[in-house]
Amino acid sequence: MNLQLIERAKKYEKSIAIVASEGKFTYQNLLRSSAQIATLLLDGKEDLQEQRVAFLIPSGFQYVTTLWGIWRAGGIAMPLCVAHPRPELEYAIADSGASIIIAHPDFAALLHPIAIERGLRFILTSEILSDNICALPDVDLTRRALILYTSGTTGKPKGVVTLHQNIQAQVTSLVSAWEWTSSDRILHVLPLHHIHGIINVLTCALWAGAECLMLPKFDAKIVWERIIDSNLTLFMAVPTIYVKLINAWESADFELQQKMSQGCTQMRLMVSGSAALPVQVLEKWQQISGHFLLERYGMTEIGMALSNPLHGERLAGYVGKPLPEVEVRLVDENDNLVLADTPGEVQVKSPGVFLEYWQKPEATAASFRDGWFCTGDLAVVENDNYRLLGRLSVDIIKTGGYKVSALEIESVLLTHPLIQDCAVVGLPNLEWGEQVCAVLVLVPGGDLTLELLRIWGKERLAIYKVPTRMVVVNELTRNAMGKVTKGELVRQLQDGSLVK
Ligand code: AMP
Which residue of 22, 293, 440, 469 could cross-link 272, Cys pair, CB 3.0 to 4.6 Å? Predict the structure, then answer.
């Protein structure tokens, strides 16, 4: 049996699948090019048998054909982030045990040395592909499909492994809840190493036979131009993007504002997720676009779990009810169901839930209770709708829709020659959700500016993990266990009472 995603594409062969900077491509083009890439990857073998294939390609047609090519060859796709510096890329490549790297020529200088050092096969997307397509393997739904690296409460990011059947369940749940059809046209502005961009936008669109317009990167002006001129039906983004679009709308002249707003009213649905949507942003966006944003909640490990309704009343500040095929419960610290109107941890069970953290059986086991995945998020149910209250761990920060680990950033900062001790916290911020703030104790006589810290940090960490605020103190207050009392630190940073 072949993958349904691929089989379905045959029904839409003549329709446009992808519009990108490289041009317009039909589902037939996508099927053919991905089969050529699969042939190249197989290189005479029958099946990649879950070999990990890391790839670094900007958003566009080549990204999609590579993803599908890996799947069709029986490999596990591992999309890397275009904004990551070498240490982050190297970590994911080494941790996943990838045997092949595929790179866009723009990233050749970055990735080729890693491939050489590790003895990995290296393929450039500019290679000429053969027209002789080989027999492709039957890829069963129970096979591993994707590894996405995500930050957790412990040190380095972990590889979240999803099976083809998990992806299919995540996609069909959303396609049915949000009524995707082949007439949809969506603008894709999200990163393609994260579930939001890969599943909710790209794979849902391709499952439905819809058209996906891909921008190589987010640019508020260009997004507005596409909203005005592309007859879009759908748009999905993180709250930070809506804030940037609001700012661009506000700085436009009256005539342009009218066109921008008109472009939005033609759409059938606009969605926000991956981080809490501030009510002020929701209200401002409604004034500008006429859309009451549909807010949903999900996670790399589980796909989407909760959503406001497509039809019917959406509540500001709430993430709605469980999506089709998803069970959600709230429990206390003893895993007992909480009483009505009482906060509890969100736990999720669904066919979309991931298989495992790559080669981390203990971490995988620790994240499940009786088959329920423990999200680490706190919520309460009010009038049948879920409202998120925050996270169990202060060490998880959500900034611009990205999940980052305070502990991972701290361990990198501690390698700086001028930093003796540090604590990283997330400070509430309207534009970014949370701002990454480093509270530092410097070595005696040490002098460090935020600018210098950021230059140093960007060489070692993904840009969104690099602190945007820095405070130097004489010492960090720790509790009896030796842990920095971060809740207290955040309070002091916010009310200005931090003793320097
Ligand atoms: P990620 O795996 O990067 O998608 O991050 C998942 C985390 O993002 C969740 O565990 C939540 O903490 C957070 N999150 C996702 N959607 C929302 C939302 N609508 N409101 C608040 N937090 C959210």
Answer: 293
Q: pLDDT digit string (tens) for 247-292?
A: 999 999 999 999 999 999 999 999 999 999 999 999 999 999 999 9
Q: Which residue has the tokens 């959700």?
A: 433
Structure tokens at 330: 């709230």
Q: Is 25 helix (H, G, I), strand (E, B) or coil?
A: strand
Q: Closest Cα partner for 438 from 481, 479, 407, 392?
A: 407
- CA atoms of 133 and 40, how far apart (whole Å): 9
Give distance in angstroms: CA of 266 to centre of ligand 1.
Answer: 28
Whether the full predicted model's pTM is greater than 0.90, yes or no, is yes
Ligand 1 atom 8 nearest Cα = 274
Element (H, E) at 469: strand 469-472
- Say how far apart CA 292 and CA 334 lie, in whole Å: 37
Cβ contact 18:212 at 8 Å: yes
Q: Which residues line ligand 1 (CB under 6 A)?
A: 150, 195, 273-276, 295, 297-300, 319, 375, 377, 388, 391, 398, 403
8 A C-beta contact, residue 199 and residue 303: yes
Q: Write out the two tokens for 354.
A: 């991931």
C-alpha 413/C-alpha 444 separation (Å) is 16
Q: Are the C-beta atoms of residues 102 and 80 closer than 8 Å to each other?
A: no
Is residue 340 exposed (0-12), middle (13-18) or buried (19+ Cβ within 10 Å)? exposed
- Structure-block tokens of residue 173: 């749940």
